[in-house]
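Hi support team,

I submitted a single chain yesterday and got back a structure, but I'm not sure I'm reading the C-alpha coordinate output correctly. Could someone confirm the output below corresponds to the sequence I sent? I've pasted both exactly as they appear in my results page.

Thanks,
R.
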Amino acid sequence: MTIEYDPNRSGFIALVCYKDGEKRYALLPKSVKVGDEFVVSENAEVKIGNRLPLRKIPVGTFVYNVELKPKGGAKLGRSAGNYAEVVAQDAGHTDLKLPSSEVRKVLDTCWASIGEVSNDENRLVNIGKAGRSRWLGIRPTVRGTAMNAVDHPYGGGEGRQGRGTRRAKTRWGKPVGKGQKSRYPKKYSNYLIVSRRKVGKKRE
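Hi R., thanks for writing in. Yes, this is the structure output for that exact sequence:
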Protein backbone atom coordinates (compact mmCIF):
# COMPACT_ATOMS: atom_id res chain seq x y z
CA MET A 1 0.00 0.00 0.00
CA THR A 2 2.53 2.62 1.12
CA ILE A 3 6.31 2.89 1.48
CA GLU A 4 7.35 4.72 4.64
CA TYR A 5 10.43 5.95 6.51
CA ASP A 6 11.03 4.41 9.93
CA PRO A 7 13.28 6.31 12.38
CA ASN A 8 14.04 3.07 14.25
CA ARG A 9 15.81 1.30 11.36
CA SER A 10 17.90 2.07 8.28
CA GLY A 11 15.71 0.23 5.73
CA PHE A 12 12.27 1.41 4.57
CA ILE A 13 9.04 -0.24 5.73
CA ALA A 14 5.82 -0.94 3.84
CA LEU A 15 2.25 -0.86 5.11
CA VAL A 16 0.84 -4.12 3.75
CA CYS A 17 -2.84 -4.96 3.33
CA TYR A 18 -3.69 -8.68 3.52
CA LYS A 19 -6.59 -10.23 1.59
CA ASP A 20 -8.70 -10.43 4.76
CA GLY A 21 -8.34 -6.65 5.21
CA GLU A 22 -5.75 -6.74 8.02
CA LYS A 23 -2.95 -4.15 7.74
CA ARG A 24 0.60 -4.65 9.01
CA TYR A 25 4.06 -3.16 8.57
CA ALA A 26 6.75 -5.23 6.85
CA LEU A 27 10.42 -4.62 6.06
CA LEU A 28 10.59 -3.52 2.43
CA PRO A 29 12.86 -5.33 -0.06
CA LYS A 30 14.76 -3.57 -2.83
CA SER A 31 12.99 -2.94 -6.17
CA VAL A 32 9.45 -3.38 -4.77
CA LYS A 33 7.01 -0.54 -5.45
CA VAL A 34 3.51 0.48 -4.36
CA GLY A 35 0.88 -1.92 -5.70
CA ASP A 36 3.15 -4.99 -5.85
CA GLU A 37 1.94 -8.21 -4.24
CA PHE A 38 3.92 -10.74 -2.25
CA VAL A 39 3.00 -14.07 -0.69
CA VAL A 40 3.77 -15.55 2.75
CA SER A 41 3.32 -19.30 2.32
CA GLU A 42 5.21 -22.61 2.35
CA ASN A 43 4.31 -23.02 -1.31
CA ALA A 44 5.11 -19.45 -2.39
CA GLU A 45 7.09 -18.83 -5.56
CA VAL A 46 10.76 -17.84 -5.12
CA LYS A 47 10.18 -14.17 -6.01
CA ILE A 48 11.40 -10.91 -4.43
CA GLY A 49 9.30 -10.06 -1.36
CA ASN A 50 7.82 -13.55 -0.89
CA ARG A 51 8.41 -15.28 2.45
CA LEU A 52 8.88 -19.04 2.82
CA PRO A 53 10.83 -21.66 4.84
CA LEU A 54 14.57 -21.93 4.15
CA ARG A 55 14.25 -25.56 3.00
CA LYS A 56 12.15 -24.38 0.02
CA ILE A 57 14.72 -21.77 -1.09
CA PRO A 58 17.28 -22.85 -3.75
CA VAL A 59 21.05 -22.43 -3.33
CA GLY A 60 22.39 -19.07 -4.55
CA THR A 61 19.27 -17.08 -3.56
CA PHE A 62 19.64 -13.84 -1.58
CA VAL A 63 17.42 -13.68 1.51
CA TYR A 64 16.78 -11.15 4.29
CA ASN A 65 14.76 -10.99 7.53
CA VAL A 66 15.91 -14.50 8.49
CA GLU A 67 14.81 -16.33 11.65
CA LEU A 68 17.41 -18.06 13.87
CA LYS A 69 14.81 -20.21 15.64
CA PRO A 70 11.44 -21.35 14.22
CA LYS A 71 8.70 -18.84 15.17
CA GLY A 72 11.35 -16.79 16.99
CA GLY A 73 11.05 -13.71 14.76
CA ALA A 74 13.54 -12.46 12.18
CA LYS A 75 17.05 -11.74 13.49
CA LEU A 76 19.48 -11.76 10.53
CA GLY A 77 19.85 -9.48 7.49
CA ARG A 78 17.58 -6.60 8.51
CA SER A 79 19.54 -3.36 8.06
CA ALA A 80 19.57 -1.28 4.85
CA GLY A 81 21.05 -3.06 1.81
CA ASN A 82 21.76 -6.26 3.75
CA TYR A 83 21.14 -9.85 2.68
CA ALA A 84 22.36 -13.39 3.36
CA GLU A 85 23.13 -15.89 0.61
CA VAL A 86 21.91 -19.50 0.71
CA VAL A 87 25.07 -21.54 0.03
CA ALA A 88 23.97 -25.12 0.91
CA GLN A 89 21.08 -27.31 2.08
CA ASP A 90 22.29 -30.02 4.45
CA ALA A 91 20.47 -32.52 6.73
CA GLY A 92 17.88 -30.29 8.35
CA HIS A 93 20.03 -27.16 8.19
CA THR A 94 20.57 -24.41 5.63
CA ASP A 95 24.02 -22.81 5.31
CA LEU A 96 23.86 -19.01 5.00
CA LYS A 97 26.68 -16.64 4.11
CA LEU A 98 26.04 -13.56 6.24
CA PRO A 99 27.01 -9.93 5.47
CA SER A 100 30.01 -10.31 7.83
CA SER A 101 31.32 -13.16 5.57
CA GLU A 102 30.55 -15.74 8.30
CA VAL A 103 28.95 -18.97 7.06
CA ARG A 104 26.40 -20.26 9.56
CA LYS A 105 23.94 -23.16 9.77
CA VAL A 106 20.28 -22.29 10.45
CA LEU A 107 17.43 -24.79 10.90
CA ASP A 108 15.68 -25.23 7.55
CA THR A 109 12.26 -24.82 9.22
CA CYS A 110 13.07 -21.14 9.87
CA TRP A 111 11.49 -18.61 7.53
CA ALA A 112 13.15 -15.95 5.37
CA SER A 113 12.13 -13.35 2.80
CA ILE A 114 13.52 -13.34 -0.75
CA GLY A 115 15.63 -10.36 -1.84
CA GLU A 116 17.69 -7.60 -0.21
CA VAL A 117 16.63 -4.90 2.25
CA SER A 118 15.74 -1.56 0.64
CA ASN A 119 17.58 1.79 0.97
CA ASP A 120 21.06 0.42 0.22
CA GLU A 121 22.26 4.02 -0.30
CA ASN A 122 21.94 4.59 3.45
CA ARG A 123 25.69 3.84 3.77
CA LEU A 124 26.47 6.91 1.62
CA VAL A 125 24.79 9.36 4.03
CA ASN A 126 27.19 12.03 5.29
CA ILE A 127 26.32 13.06 8.87
CA GLY A 128 27.85 16.48 8.14
CA LYS A 129 28.07 17.96 11.64
CA ALA A 130 28.45 16.98 15.27
CA GLY A 131 24.93 18.15 16.13
CA ARG A 132 23.31 15.66 13.77
CA SER A 133 25.16 12.83 15.55
CA ARG A 134 23.70 14.11 18.81
CA TRP A 135 20.18 13.97 17.34
CA LEU A 136 20.86 10.28 16.70
CA GLY A 137 21.83 9.77 20.35
CA ILE A 138 25.57 9.41 19.63
CA ARG A 139 27.71 11.16 22.26
CA PRO A 140 31.28 12.41 21.65
CA THR A 141 34.09 9.81 21.64
CA VAL A 142 37.19 10.72 23.66
CA ARG A 143 40.47 8.93 22.79
CA GLY A 144 42.10 6.95 25.59
CA THR A 145 45.46 8.70 25.03
CA ALA A 146 43.79 12.08 25.65
CA MET A 147 42.64 11.01 29.15
CA ASN A 148 44.39 11.05 32.51
CA ALA A 149 46.13 7.91 33.77
CA VAL A 150 43.36 7.35 36.33
CA ASP A 151 40.70 7.19 33.60
CA HIS A 152 42.20 4.83 31.00
CA PRO A 153 45.10 2.36 30.53
CA TYR A 154 46.47 4.67 27.76
CA GLY A 155 46.07 7.88 29.78
CA GLY A 156 48.76 10.13 31.27
CA GLY A 157 52.39 10.49 30.21
CA GLU A 158 54.41 13.50 29.15
CA GLY A 159 53.38 15.04 25.82
CA ARG A 160 51.99 12.83 23.09
CA GLN A 161 53.12 9.50 24.37
CA GLY A 162 52.36 6.16 22.70
CA ARG A 163 49.94 3.78 24.34
CA GLY A 164 52.81 1.51 25.44
CA THR A 165 51.12 -1.78 24.54
CA ARG A 166 50.60 -3.51 21.24
CA ARG A 167 47.19 -4.90 22.05
CA ALA A 168 44.29 -2.43 21.91
CA LYS A 169 42.09 -2.51 25.01
CA THR A 170 39.10 -0.74 26.54
CA ARG A 171 39.25 1.48 29.61
CA TRP A 172 38.41 -1.67 31.63
CA GLY A 173 41.37 -3.57 30.17
CA LYS A 174 39.41 -5.88 27.85
CA PRO A 175 40.85 -6.56 24.34
CA VAL A 176 39.03 -4.59 21.61
CA GLY A 177 39.19 -4.05 17.82
CA LYS A 178 42.19 -4.72 15.57
CA GLY A 179 41.04 -8.29 14.90
CA GLN A 180 40.89 -9.26 18.58
CA LYS A 181 38.46 -12.09 19.36
CA SER A 182 35.67 -11.11 21.75
CA ARG A 183 33.33 -14.09 21.32
CA TYR A 184 32.87 -16.43 24.32
CA PRO A 185 34.90 -19.56 23.37
CA LYS A 186 32.32 -22.03 24.78
CA LYS A 187 29.22 -20.39 23.31
CA TYR A 188 26.36 -22.86 22.74
CA SER A 189 26.03 -21.99 19.04
CA ASN A 190 29.69 -22.60 18.09
CA TYR A 191 28.83 -25.88 16.33
CA LEU A 192 26.51 -23.98 13.96
CA ILE A 193 29.29 -21.78 12.58
CA VAL A 194 30.88 -23.35 9.50
CA SER A 195 33.48 -20.61 8.92
CA ARG A 196 34.22 -17.50 10.95
CA ARG A 197 34.02 -13.95 9.67
CA LYS A 198 37.16 -12.42 8.18
CA VAL A 199 38.83 -9.90 10.51
CA GLY A 200 41.86 -7.63 10.38
CA LYS A 201 43.46 -5.90 7.41
CA LYS A 202 42.69 -7.07 3.90
CA ARG A 203 45.79 -8.24 2.05
CA GLU A 204 45.83 -7.74 -1.70
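A quick pointer for reading it: The two ends are 47 Å apart (CA to CA). Let us know if anything else looks off.

Best,
Support desk
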